[in-house]
């Protein structure tokens, strides 16, 4: 007995699944529902961009720029540049309204091989390590109050709590999309509330005349181009995640309107919050203190909030918790789409018939992320791929220009001025070249990791007829997944 993708067995033990399919989808189709509203989209973008960095160590820009004024200017310019890139992705996301983000756009413009390489790097390192690092930061700050000041938290305890965090959020995402979006909304609000407290406290300090650290703001500014470039690199890294809503376009209600609206709201909001939060820090901490303190927001809280200083570690934990949730939600859709295109096993493109969630893909992401929490090399792994991420973002933006030429009649609900993709592409090229000079070893390793996907593609993906042992293993695993997780392939309503 065999299953075809999108079908289930007629065996008696699986017969109830047919009834549930009928009940779960009166339209006669099984596909992910459009349950993401505008405010959910804003929460995804803001919640993923604002992680722990602005609370813990917003020092990279200050260290390289040399002065308060120049660092604040660079924070603002980085926000504007990311807004420029996000507008390019708004055109791509509405012209190619498919989930998967960069994967879908690269595939449309340049074909399956570059798209698979993006998926390969995302699968091996980018997505699971990003989720793991955020979860480990959550674990560190949630455990911090339980240990005496100055006492090191055991690494095993941090790893266990991080794994529990990922497991819980994977369960929530598997259960209901609405539950996942509710958590995203709540914890995004929590981090914005915490940053609002910092900003208002800073405004009160300025009103009371505490501006000594803001006097002569550009004194000490570097004139070295290399340091300014590194300052921009650090700033742009802090805005990473602005393109994650494009990974879930198919589940966004009215994407032609809500995708660009979410971008218009989110990026200016994050930019203003980042700049004002840094200003607030300087009303309490001097430049040397900001550069040397282990956790800027925590130190700020100790000096300003008094007995309520404990709330800052709590809000850092909230911020990272929401970031893990958004990362799991978005990355699972990337792997779902990759499997749907035949670049990953078919079982990852299946949908649970009761909850209408991509259950196998979510479990897969959760397991990979938990695995990364157990290795001490997780932080070094992410360093290898910053260069690769910039390269694929550049490839996606170049796809916009290529499709303008190749498919001039393609329906584009949003059509940005060509100056935006050209300028942003030049910036991406700069971000690609810079690591070649500053960290050639990490860059080389990142390139090697990416290129390992080429033999994988031509050995396992490209051949239409695979060795029987591989085919039988894939079929067995797919059938087992269908039975165990009560899943079927994505199906659409008959039109005949």
What are the SSEs and their pairings?
Layout: H1 15-24, H2 38-49, H3 53-56, H4 60-65, H5 68-95, H6 102-110, H7 112-143, H8 155-175, H9 177-207, H10 225-238, H11 255-282, H12 287-292, H13 296-304, H14 311-340, E1 350-352, H15 359-372, H16 378-406, H17 419-438, H18 440-451, H19 453-461, H20 468-485, E2 487-489
Antiparallel strand pairs: 1-2
Give an account of the 3D structure.
With 496 residues, the chain is an all-alpha fold. The chain is 69% helix and 1% strand. Helix 2 packs across helix 9, helix 8 packs antiparallel against helix 15 (359-372) and helix 16 (378-406) crosses helix 18 (440-451). It is globular, with a radius of gyration of 23 Å. The model is unreliable at 1-27 (pLDDT under 50).
Question: What key attributes describe this structure?
Answer:
496 residues; mainly alpha; two-stranded antiparallel ribbon; 2 strands; 1% strand; globular; disordered N terminus
């Amino acid at each position: 007995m065999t299953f075809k993708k999108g079908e289930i067995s007629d065996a008696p033990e699986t017969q109830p699944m047919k009834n549930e399919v009928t009940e779960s989808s009166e339209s006669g189709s099984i596909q992910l529902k459009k349950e993401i509203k505008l405010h959910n989209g804003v929460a995804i973008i803001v919640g993923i961009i604002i992680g722990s960095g602005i609370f813990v160590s917003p020092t990279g820009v200050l260290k390289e720029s040399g002065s308060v004024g120049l660092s604040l200017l660079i924070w603002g310019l980085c926000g504007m540049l990311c807004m420029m890139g996000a507008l390019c992705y708004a055109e791509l996301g509405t012209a190619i309204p498919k989930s998967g983000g960069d994967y879908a756009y690269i595939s449309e413009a340049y074909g399956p091989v570059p798209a698979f390489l993006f998926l390969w790097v995302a699968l091996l390192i980018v997505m699971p390590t990003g989720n793991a690092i955020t979860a480990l930061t959550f674990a560190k700050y949630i455990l911090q109050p339980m240990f005496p000041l100055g006492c090191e938290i055991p690494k095993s305890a941090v790893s266990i709590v991080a794994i529990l965090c990922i497991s819980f959020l994977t369960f929530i995402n598997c259960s209901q999309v609405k539950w996942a979006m509710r958590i995203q909304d709540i914890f995004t609000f929590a981090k914005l509330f915490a940053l609002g407290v910092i900003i208002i406290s800073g405004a009160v300090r300025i009103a009371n005349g505490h501006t000594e650290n803001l006097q002569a703001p550009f004194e000490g500014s570097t004139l070295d181009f290399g340091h300014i470039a590194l300052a921009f690199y650090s700033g742009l890294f802090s805005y990473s995640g602005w393109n994650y809503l494009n990974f879930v376009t198919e589940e966004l209600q009215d994407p032609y309107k809500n995708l660009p609206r979410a971008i218009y709201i989110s990026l200016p909001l994050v930019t203003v919050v980042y700049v004002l939060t840094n200003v607030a820090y300087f009303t309490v901490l001097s430049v040397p203190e900001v550069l040397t303190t282990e956790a800027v927001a925590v130190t700020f809280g100790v000096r300003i909030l008094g007995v309520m200083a404990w709330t800052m570690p709590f809000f850092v934990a909230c911020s990272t918790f929401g970031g893990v949730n958004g990362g799991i939600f978005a990355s699972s859709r990337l792997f779902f789409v990759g499997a749907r295109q035949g670049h990953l096993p078919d079982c990852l493109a299946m949908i649970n018939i009761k909850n209408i969630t991509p259950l196998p893909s979510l479990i897969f992401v959760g397991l990979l992320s938990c695995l990364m929490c157990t290795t001490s090399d997780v932080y070094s792994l992410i360093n290898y791929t910053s260069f690769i991420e910039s390269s694929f973002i550049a490839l996606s933006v170049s796809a916009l220009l290529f499709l303008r030429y190749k498919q001039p009649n393609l329906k584009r609900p949003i059509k940005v001025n060509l100056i935006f993709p050209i300028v942003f592409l030049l910036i991406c090229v700069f971000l690609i070249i810079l690591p070649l000079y500053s960290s050639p070893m990490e860059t080389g390793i990142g390139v090697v990791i990416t290129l390992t996907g080429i033999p994988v593609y031509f050995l396992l993906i490209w051949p239409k007829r695979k060795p029987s042992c591989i085919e039988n293993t894939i079929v067995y695993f797919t059938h087992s997944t269908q039975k165990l997780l009560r899943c079927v392939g994505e199906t659409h309503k008959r039109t005949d």
